[in-house]
Amino acid sequence: MSKPRLVVVGNGMAGIRTLEELLRLAPGKYEVTVFGAEPRPNYNRILLSPVLAGEQDFDAIVLNGYDWYREHGVTLRAGVRVTRIDRARRRVIGADGSEAPYDRLLLATGSDPFLPDIPGIRLPGVLAYRDIADTEAMIEAARAHRRAVVIGGGLLGLEAANGLAARGMQVTVVHLADWLMERQLDAAAGALLRQSLEARGIAFLTGAATEALVPGESGRVAAVRVRGMDPIPADLVVVAVGIRPSVALARDAGLPAERGIRVDDTLQTFDPRIYAVGECVSHRGVVYGLVAPLFEMARVCANHLAGHGIARYTGSVTSTRLKVTGIDLFSAGDFMGGAGKEEITLADPVGGVYKKLVIRDDRLVGACLYGDTADGAWYFRLLREARPVGEIRDALMFGETNLGDTGHQGQSRAAAMADDAEVCGCNGVCKGTIVAAIKAQGLFTLEDVRRHTKASASCGSCTGLVEQILMATAGGDYSAAPAQKAMCGCTERSHEEVRRAIRAQRLLSIPEAMAFLEWQRPDGCATCRPALNYYLISTWPKEAVDDPQSRYINERAHANIQKDGSFSVIPRMWGGETTPAELRRIADVAEKYAIRTVKVTGGQRIDLLGARKADLPAIWRDLAMPSGHAYAKALRTVKTCVGSEWCRFGTQDSTDMGKRLERALWRMYAPHKVKLAVSGCPRNCAEAGIKDVGVIGVDSGWEIYVAGNGGIKTEVAQILCKVRTAAEVLETAGAFLQLYREEGWYLERTVHYVARVGLEHVKRRVIEEGESRAALWQRLQFALDGEPDPWHEAPAARVDLRQFAPLAAAEVADVDG
Amino acid sequence: MSTAEHWQGVCSVDDVPLRGARVLARPAGGDIAIFRTAAGGVFALLDRCPHKGGPLSQGIVHGETVACPLHNWQIGLGDGRAQAPDTGCAARFAVRVVDGQVCLRAADLGGDGAAAA
Ligand code: SRM
Ligand SMILES: Cc1cc2nc3c(=O)[nH]c(=O)nc-3n(C[C@H](O)[C@H](O)[C@H](O)COP(=O)(O)OP(=O)(O)OC[C@H]3O[C@@H](n4cnc5c(N)ncnc54)[C@H](O)[C@@H]3O)c2cc1C
Ligand code: SF4
Ligand code: FES
User: Is B2 contained in some domain?
Assistant: First the structure.
């Protein structure tokens, strides 16, 4: 059977990013043809500015050279513009008359520069600023001519002006609004920006409307006429007044496209065979013009093209930086303030620093920074997460470094960033991912980091931060590196350091670990003791001494404490399946022990709520079912659907797979709770897409997803791999969970763990390196072998049964004092 | 000898786990939590957190503090007081250890019949 055909129109940033993601998720699924109007391979459009400024050349900004297309079997028609889509016969027609049939079509046509309707706009010497051809024409003009006018003082116009000035031209920027970058900056920051660009010799006219471009004798542009002023002489005019989504192709084909091509949350257009991504689309009425949202679209679109069908794009909040070397500015959100909003500002005109934060309803809604943008990423995170800022309000302006964490002097900002703080907004790379890559792969240069993590590989505005992280992580020996975040107030050690010491020094008990690591409080606290206990037993199974007194009450009493001090009991039901006999016993227990509420949980099991602590051992005995560990940082449920045994769509026996997983993994303690689900087909009735490990049966085997989370912040699981047999599912899932058990920090769910170390790292250890997978799986089986069920083997599980027997004053003997 | 000075043994010290607690049920209600610290100190508090009544006996004991199991308030074992920024106080009971026996005031145990004996 021949493969389905995917045709991509637009060889730019969004289209090819989608293709990259698709090739990663489902290599070889399609026969792919790409049409690109530009006679070039795919390059990084963002970096045209450094090319113009003479800081880089074209070769350095190519993202995927011609051999990339060859290696991936992608047919590239570079230099061929698509002129028509024939939806009825499902083919596209190129300007050269060539045709390409499609089963799926991806439109990624980007934008066209907007050229205002003024006299002279088509004269020779008038350029837009969009692609490498424009850039090369500007470089050429700068060689031959001296005077340039840039119309438009926005992001693009200023980068053009800066580049031309760097090439020795005398540049005047004509801008209609009253201050520069009025869509990204407020008036005060705009004024500071103007000052520093003026210092570089660029002239500005603001509040200035261009009326006409005037030709000289040669017919080339010679001057720019601005309302109410003398004409400005110009040998080169760059028009950068805005962009318009490139929608003609789609609209002619009958696809709804008002401002942009209309797409839904799966990036599908009105025609279900046609998807669209990038600047050419309008999503929920919003058109984007920066790469970060386009890359998010690409991820979701690829997921659907790959046939996984679980991702949703719900829109993006964007932030702006200007890529003019030596100028730091950052803005995001609603930074203009106004009615109903509070503003906090800090202005140091002499030092060239200005900061404004806008707050509404106790949430940060906008930020505008000039001169010192180090905290931009942090503000952006607060803004996107819409976290209440009341508690940190006083310190907000002074940045993340001034929060909490006092006492570590001289730290660089990078060292103080949280691991999940985003460093590179374009590619969504967090600090933890960068640090993990540097450590695991021994990276030393900025280039290495870019290649391995993509951080700072797009717009480059986070380069400084990435360098700091590199210095802090790789530079000098470990002890010289700035201290990481301490585990709690009892120590200066970080989770990572503690884990490492326990392994390296073979520490086997809490007192030993505390002594070796110089704990500052002999007895620790309620935060570090459970963490230490977990690290010990997970690193040295069968050897380290479990300390129930260092466990939270639920894991000490093996039931969930409730708000009234009573407990709830959830027995294990393998894969969510039960029997009449079990149900009868549950009913009997509920009556005998006067259980007030019997409830089906969100995890496919039955909860007996309101049990008295003193009754717990008897309840367990009468239930005669295994502990469900609903109370523990351990394996909880394995949800399943009915699967191929009953369901008319089932492709695999998901119930049996779930039971096998649960039997293999139960009693497994972990850094946090662990939940699994197995569905029998991609309809995914067991909701495997939001589980720590989700398994989905397909005709040819099983897809394994990891690091999903259905909790506080829902996160869709990411595909790890596809395997054929149930045995492979067990080994792969087990190896992944063991890696998490060995490397996760206490109370870190898999989603956060994977975000910290990077999915690449996980894939390497669990998929690519077969020996590593086998070894992980074996270590897990060793750890779980013979582990007791705390409900039925109390002594072996070190359950202190005394706790269930209250002391009674009536029984006690009299002592005279 | 007045009732207030009459002490009654309630259990042996070893019945209370190190860094742990036992609960003493009182006939008239209002359980008492008896704690034993790593250093061997024995303390008694009303088993009700000043916050929302959580059973302090079920918390993690560290130093001379117990972390309430419900919302993690830190309650001093010696004075029953919540650590700042939280405020509130759990009722304290006097304890003595005599010959390895944990003793409380008979009057605090509620049933005065026992105290008279
Ligand atoms: C009983 C149950 C609700 C119910 O009646 O359905 C429940 C009850 C509690 N959940 Fe849950 N969760 C229950 C299913 C879930 C699910 C659904 C699922 O498992 O498929 C989720 C979302 C899935 C996930 O975890 O990703 C869920 C996400 C949470 C979270 C958020 C975790 C996160 O990482 O964001 C918490 C808070 C935490 O663990 O820190 C939480 C915490 C709790 C606690 C332990 C809160 C507490 O500390 O007391 C509740 C304990 C009540 C008790 O003592 O019984 N519960 N909780 C469910 C037990 C399932 C079971 O059979 O084991
Ligand atoms: C100078 C400059 C600096 C920038 N700086 C930044 C920045 O710092 N940060 C940031 O986030 N963004 C920046 N941007 C914006 C960013 O480059 C765009 O958002 C991004 O490139 C859009 O991606 P896209 O795939 O939608 O469109 P494009 O990258 O423009 O790709 C579209 C491609 O489709 C081709 N095409 C169009 N129609 C057809 C057709 N009918 N047939 C075949 N091919 C067709 C076009 O020729 C083009 O190659 C900058 C843009 C420019 C021009
Ligand atoms: S959703 Fe909240 S209230 Fe409901 S069980 Fe979970 S934690 Fe408790
Ligand atoms: S009841 Fe103790 S902290 Fe809330």
Answer: no
Q: How confident is the model at residue A568 (pLDDT cuts 50, 70, 90)?
A: very high
Pocket test residue of B58, B68, B75 for ligand 4, highest count of atoms within 8 A of CB: B68
Residues belonging to chain B: 117
A523 touches chain B (CB under 8 A): yes
Over residues A315-350, the pLDDT tens digits come to 887 777 777 767 888 888 888 878 888 888 888 877
* Separation between Cα atoms, residue A709 and residue A152, nearest integer Å: 45
Q: Tokens 């975040």 appear where? A: A485
Question: Is B5 part of any domain?
Answer: no
Domain extent for B24: 14-110
Percentage of residues of chain A with pLDDT beyond 90: 67
The full set of domains in chain A, from first to last, is 5-111+245-305 (3.50.50.60), 126-241 (3.50.50.60), 495-551 (no CATH), 634-788 (3.30.413.10)
Q: Which atom of ligand 1 is nearest to the CA of A560?
A: 54
> ipTM, 2 decimals?
0.69
In a domain, B1, yes or no: no
Q: Is the CB of A156 under 6 A from ligand 2?
A: yes
C-alpha A30: how far from chain center: 26
DSSP string, A653-705: -HHHHHHHHHHHHTT-B-SS-EEEEEESSTT-TT-GGGSSEEEEEETTEEEEE
Q: How many Å lie between the alpha carbon of B25 and the closest alpha carbon of chain A?
A: 5
Instruction: Report, as an integer, the average pLDDT of A671-681.
Output: 97
Edge-to-edge strand order for the sheet containing A210-215?
A210-215, A221-226, A232-233
Cis, bond preceding B85 (omega within 30 deg of 0): yes
Q: Is the CB of A43 under 6 A from ligand 2?
A: no
pLDDT tens digit string along A452-495?
Answer: 787 877 666 677 678 777 766 654 322 222 234 678 888 888 89
The answer to whether the Cβ–Cβ distance between B5 and A817 falls below 8 Å is yes
Q: Is residue B8 part of a domain?
A: no
Q: What is the pTM of this model?
A: 0.53
Residues linked to residue A106 through DSSP beta bridges, in sequence order: A8, A275
CB A264 within 8 A of CB A230: no
Residue B78 Cα, gap to closest chain A Cα (Å): 16
Distance (Å) from the alpha carbon of B16 to chain A's nearest alpha carbon:
9
Nearest to B13 by CA among B39, B47, B38, B42: B42
Helix A431-441 and helix A446-453, axial crossing angle in degrees, nearest 10: 110
Query: CB contact, 8 Å: A552 with chain B?
Result: yes
For residue A108, what are the contacts with CB-CB under 8 A and spacing of at least 6?
A8, A9, A10, A12, A14, A15, A16, A18, A276, A277, A278, A280
CATH number, position B98: 2.102.10.10
Residue A743 vs residue A337, higher pLDDT: A743
Residue A185: which of A194, A176, A196 has the closest Cα? A194
DSSP A603-629: TSSEEEEEE-GGGHHHHHHHHT--B--
How far is the C-alpha of A286 from the C-alpha of A316, rounded, in Å? 9
Rounded to 5 degrees, φ, ψ at B33 are -100, 125
